[in-house]
Every structure is written in C-alpha cells, then in structure tokens.
Design brief:
alpha/beta; Rossmann fold; two-stranded antiparallel sheet; 387 residues
Length: 387
C-alpha cells in the first residue's frame, strides 16, 4: 500500500501570488506555511507541489530558471525548518497565440484542471490517492484533485486571479483560510459528543420489569436536603480611615508614546503568529537566518556555528550581510565593462565616418559604414545588458 500525500498548489498556497514569478527574489513564503509543512511531515504525509507554469511556454522563463526558482524556495523553507518532497510543473499553454515556444503550445494532460501531474507523481512516488489530499486556492486545483480521486481543501484566492466555482466542479471536501488551517482539517479527528452527567440520565430499568408505584413515587419526590445553617451577622461598620495615596509621577510625552505603542512587532515566519514587542525585548523571541521567530519556534530552531560563537555580534553581522546583498541587487555596477567601452569607441567612429560621408556624398560607402557601425554599437550594448 502506498504512502499518503498532500498535493499542494504553489502560488497563492505556499508563496504570495504575484502573477508570473520568474526570479527567486519574488519568493515570499506565506505565514504559517513552514509550520504546516513540518506538521505534515511529522504525520507521515509526503508534500508534493503541482503547479501550472505557462511562463515557460510564453517565453518568460526556461526550465532551468524554474529549477533555480524551486532551489531557492527549498533553501528558504529549510531555513524555517520545513521542506517539500517533489515539484511537478506543467510548462504548456494551449493557446498558440500566447505561446512563444511552438512545441509547448499543445493540449496536454498535465495542465490543471486535468489530473496528469497528480497521477504522474502518484506513479513515481508510490502514493495512495485514496488517503491523499489536494490543497489549492484556485478552482482548477480542486477540479484536478477531484479528477484524481483526492479529498480537497479550497483556500481563498485573490478575486482578480480566480473566478466563481464552475458548475461542473462539485464543492470541495472543506474550505480553510490558509494552509495552517487546512492542515488542521487534514490531521483532525472527529469530535466526540460529551456524555451527559450521571444525575441527568434517566434510571435504567430492565426491559422485562416495570417500576413499582413506591419506586416511581420515590423517583418523583425530590430528595430532602437539610436547611443550611444561619449566616453570621456582619460586624459593625467601622469608620473609614483616610488612606495616603502616593503621588504618581507625570509621564512625559515620550513615555506615553512608548506605553501606547502597538504590542505586536512582527509575525513569526514559521508559524504565522504575531510576536509581541516584549518578547523581543526579553530575548524570548528573536531572529534566525534573517527570519523573525516566536519563542516556541525559536526554541525548536537549532543555532548554527556562528550563533554558538556569539549571538549578539553574529546578529549584527547577519543584518549587515543582508543589507549588502539588498544593495547589490538594487544598484547597478558603476565599473565600465569592456563591451560598453568598445561600444563607446565604435560610436565615436560611427559619428566620425558619418560626418565624413556628409562632406563626400558622391561616395556612399562612408554612410553605409556609419550605419553598420551604429548597428554594431546597439548589438554591443544589448549584449552588455544581458551579461
């Protein structure tokens, strides 16, 4: 018998929905996703991502770009103590007018709402579909899961990305507000009804016997309880004595602003719970690998070698490293590359040859040479930008 699994949509379920994410810098893991994936792993469920990636057919990214994107997602999940077992992606698009790559403009069986990705993963990884689930924010995710015989959980989607439920799609097994709530449904057990107290139950009489009139009267009459003892009389009231109240210092404007500051400073990147500011001040909550973690998740996240050496100094160095990486991604290099240098040289030569051709119009070779040099300059600048 195969192993149970939870098939997961990617955009809008694990990470924020941004349309067509093609760069690792666009990855934003949703709150509570890491804790939910960790709970599924502890319960013995495989975590398999099935996603439509028509950006490949549209020419916006390649298969290698998609692999690098998923590697970056794995690295961020690993920092939060979570992981997925496999990724299955459909690169096709059925509309040839929108597909840049003609070989991918086909009607396939792997593009959701068709169940091809789920069935292929079940065959490759020996998955028991009868005990598995599908979780996604789009109705095509639910339709694909139902076509594969899975139980389904529908998450809310952005209105601009999802339409109302199609008439051919039956309602899902359950609905949840996010992946953490969906995992609660998947791992939940039926709630047992509480047993009524013994004094509220009717007396159990044998089937062949009936209560005698005396027993019925005894049951009907309430049991006599002894009267409670009289309460003691309250003591005589004493005159109130003035109480000296110490004067309270008047709070300054800064102290009032600090006291009225919001109690929530950040949200835990692993479980999605809000972290009070006091937890950071006392050291109960903190940062790990650039992510804020609550007290419970922080205790479960092991310290790396740098943290064991010096927690405070390493935190400062990590913040500096993150800021340097951000600056490196946002700023363009100021060093003049060789390609741009050659482009400037050819540009000057093109201007010189073009001006010379204006004075010698009887010989068109100068104008042609200037046009050729100008095209070469444009090609060098495009090559420098791609590199």
């Amino acid at each position: 018998m195969g192993q149970p699994a939870v098939f997961l949509d990617r955009d809008g379920t694990l990470i924020e929905e941004v349309g067509y994410p093609v760069r690792p810098q666009q990855i934003r893991i949703l709150g509570g996703v890491a804790r939910a994936l960790a709970r599924l792993a502890e319960a013995g469920f495989k975590r398999i991502v099935v996603t439509n990636q028509s950006a490949i057919a549209r020419g916006m990214m390649t298969e290698q770009d998609l692999d690098r994107f998923h590697e970056a997602l794995d690295q961020q999940l690993d920092l939060l103590g979570a992981s997925v077992d496999a990724y299955y992606a459909c690169p096709h698009h059925p509309d040839p007018s929108e597909a840049v790559r003609p070989e991918l403009a086909v009607e396939c069986n792997c593009r959701k709402p068709k169940p091809g990705l789920i069935l292929q993963a079940a065959e490759d990884l020996d998955i028991d579909l009868a005990s598995s689930w599908m979780v996604g924010d789009m109705w095509r995710d639910i339709q694909a899961g139902q076509a594969a015989g899975l139980r389904t959980v529908k998450l809310p989607a952005l209105p601009s990305y999802d339409a109302p439920r199609p008439p051919e799609v039956v309602p899902p097994t359950a609905q949840a507000c996010d992946l953490a709530a969906a995992v609660e449904i998947i791992l939940g057990e039926p709630i047992s009804q509480p047993t009524p107290p013994a004094e509220a139950q009717a007396p159990a009489w044998p089937k062949d016997e009936e209560p005698t009139p005396e027993e019925s009267a005894a049951e009907a009459e309430p049991e006599a309880f002894p009267e409670p003892p009289p309460l003691p009389e309250p003591p005589a009231e004493e005159p109130e004595r003035p109480v000296a109240v110490p004067e309270q210092p008047v709070a300054t404007a800064t102290e009032r602003e600090e006291s009225e500051a919001p109690a929530s400073l950040a949200m835990c990147a692993r479980c999605g719970q809000e972290i009070p500011a006091a937890a950071f001040a006392t050291g109960a909550a903190g940062w790990r690998n650039g992510f804020p973690l609550c007290a419970e998740c922080l205790s479960q996240q092991p310290l790396d070698a740098a943290d064991r050496a010096s927690e405070s100094s390493t935190r400062i160095l990590r913040d500096i490293l993150i800021e340097l990486r951000r600056i490196g991604r946002t700023q363009q290099p100021t060093v003049l590359s060789r390609l741009r240098l050659f482009a400037y040289m050819f540009q000057a030569l093109a201007l010189f040859v073009g001006l010379w051709g204006l004075f010698n119009q009887e010989n068109p070779i100068f104008i042609q040479s200037a046009i050729f040099l100008q095209v070469l300059v444009v090609a060098l600048l495009l090559l420098e930008r791609r590199s």
